[in-house]
Amino acid sequence: CPRRIGVSVATNGTSKASAERVPIKILNCLHRSHIGGAQRRIIWVARELPADEFVTVVCFPQDTETEYEAMLRAAQMPFVRLPFRYLRGLSKIGNNLLFLLGLPLAIRAFQRVMKHEGIAVVHANGVTNLQPVLAALLAGRPVVWHFNDMLTPRPLVRLLSPLMRLARVRVVVATSAIIEHYHLTGLSHWQQFPATYAPRLPGRSSRDIRASLGLPDDARILGFVGNLLHLKGPQDYLRVLETLGAEDPRIHGILVGAEIESQRSFVESFRASVARSPMRDRLHLVGFQADVPAWLASFEVLIFPSHSEAC
């Protein structure tokens, strides 16, 4: 909530209090740099916040991916990139050992950013996005810890649960199912906040979309929306298309979703599967599309084969 911060100003040896509006600076931290739902939502939400009351600074890993950095520059949003790792499940021993060894330096780096930028609140996206959480707690800053998936192993979440119960921490979940999944029902200060979506954009009509792809008037479209990741199940979607397409020649597929650079090997493997598929001429890969509601409206059926979703 917006708040007025009292500022004490010394004048001729005396002091007085003045209520001056000071923007609340939020450090919104991501532990992955590819563009997904969380990365886009940060920009959408920041644009909706009153600029004189809130300023969002985005922090994400310093790696080889630059697409999100370009997106933030285009949106004229301040950001900082830091060299840090994230926990990747209990079986990834080598990665997690490097995570632990680098933890003190990562915490210190986050604290320097918080001090330099005058951060008031830290928003950490992801259960395993631990460095900004620890840095904020050590610096006495409140934390919003946002859980938006169910992939983190339960033992690891139980290990971190004491941090979630601290007075300065507020847990936000996309759905209450996340709380149930991780057996956090005894957690008192959590709030459900459905995943934010982009402001509705003017989109093309279903007829325009069909015409742009050269689809016949009697085409029956089975659609998919999601980034090209193994987790989203595009390979399962392809199998569905092949089964039903063999029965009905009117069936076409439309796959709406971005190719993630860090998942290039999976993308190439999936594209090779499409090239070998009997549906190769009836499956249309249209990439990222901003006007998703318009594409949804053009589908007869939405196929949703994700292996794991918080929603």
Q: How many helix segments?
A: 10
- How many strand segments? 13
Give the integer mean of the pLDDT values.
87
Shape field: globular
Name the strands of the widest sheet in spatial order.
Answer: 5-4-3-6-7-8-9
Largest sheet: 7 strands, parallel
- Beta-strand fraction estimate: 15-25%
Fraction of helical residues: 25-40%
Rg, Cα atoms, Å: 23 Å
Question: Low-confidence spans: pLDDT under 50, at least 5 residues?
Answer: 1-18
If you had to describe this structure to a student in words, what would you say it looks like?
- Helices cover 36% and strands 22% of the residues.
- With 311 residues, it is of the alpha/beta class.
- The strands form three sheets. The protein has a seven-stranded parallel β-sheet with strand order 5-4-3-6-7-8-9, with helices on both faces. It has a four-stranded parallel β-sheet with strand order 12-11-10-13, sandwiched between helices.
- α6 links the parallel β8 (169-173) and β9.
- α3 (93-117) packs across α4 and α7 (206-212) packs across α10 (292-298).
- The radius of gyration is 23 Å and the shape is globular.
Brief write-up:
The chain is of the alpha/beta class.
Features:
311 residues, alpha/beta, seven-stranded parallel beta sheet, four-stranded parallel beta sheet, 10 helices, 22% strand, disordered N terminus
List the helices and strands and how they pair.
Elements: E1 5-11, E2 14-20, E3 24-29, H1 37-48, E4 54-61, H2 67-74, E5 79-82, H3 93-117, E6 121-125, H4 130-138, E7 143-147, H5 154-164, E8 169-173, H6 176-181, E9 190-192, H7 206-212, E10 220-225, H8 234-247, E11 251-256, H9 264-276, E12 283-287, H10 292-298, E13 301-302
Helix pairs in contact: 3-4, 7-10
